[in-house]
Specification:
The structure holds two protein chains of two kinds. By secondary structure, chain A is an alpha+beta fold. Chain A contains two helices and three strands, in the order H-E-E-H-E. In chain A, strands 1-2-3 form a three-stranded mixed sheet. Chain B has a single domain, classed as Glutaredoxin (3-Layer(aba) Sandwich). The chains are: A alpha+beta, B alpha+beta.
Chain lengths: ~80, ~130
């Protein structure tokens, strides 16, 4: 069973420059919520950003990690015009 | 595996010309994939289609429920497919969309996103535009 800390470390290790905050939001050890900030997201659509994070875990999503709720952003989050 | 045809294919919204697993399956099963074809056809034929756990009336997962709620509050008509009755639907859907989780919302043939993205777009006002 992955811990929030393990998930955080794996995201940060896999995506260059990423910072992740991960919480286990049901307390059950299989529903996680992550906010990931990374320069690597720049110029990518939300879907592409989420895919980058999902790819870190492959088939574990839907398996041991039942749910990984994501919020992705680039570091200097400027309001969209 | 069940030897009957997957019940959910009958529930796919486009199921009038029911793809029959039993009848017309050619020998080269690697090239023919009726479930995948049915999913692709459904995505193609419906302007807005949601693949979810359960039904809009009775969602079987909180993420599906939230996505349905966002769509309903925009008053957008949408087709819905329950992926639960046959695990192959989810497998094939994720292979098509390159997206691992359920729900998945498609508009105009394109993946809009899962619950997180749909809800974020709903809150920012982008969702309505994306579904037009």
């Amino acid at each position: 069973m992955p811990s929030p800390e393990e998930i955080k470390q794996r995201i940060e290790a896999a995506i260059p420059g990423a910072q992740a905050e991960v919480e286990d939001y049901t307390g059950g050890g299989d529903h996680f919520r992550a906010t990931v900030t990374a320069t690597a997201f720049a110029g990518r659509s939300r879907i592409q950003q989420h895919r980058l994070v999902y790819e870190v875990f492959g088939a574990e999503i839907g398996g041991p990690i039942h749910a990984l709720s994501l919020k992705t952003q680039t570091p200097q989050k400027t309001p969209t015009q | 595996m069940s030897n009957s045809e997957p019940s959910t294919l009958r529930d796919l919204p486009m199921s009038s010309g029911q793809p029959s697993l039993a009848g017309e399956t050619p020998m080269s099963s690697e090239e023919s994939n009726p479930i995948r074809e049915a999913i692709e056809q459904a995505i193609d034929e419906h302007k807005v289609i949601l693949f979810m756990k359960g039904t809009p009336e009775a969602p079987a997962c909180g993420f599906s429920a939230r996505t349905v709620a966002a769509l309903q509050s925009l008053d957008v008509p949408f087709a819905a497919v329950d992926i639960l009755p046959d695990p192959r639907i989810r497998q094939e859907l994720s292979a098509i969309s390159d997206w691992p989780t359920i729900p998945q919302l498609f508009a105009n043939g394109e993946l809009v996103g899962g619950c997180d993205i749909v809800c974020e777009m709903y809150e920012s006002g982008e969702l309505q535009e994306a579904l037009q």
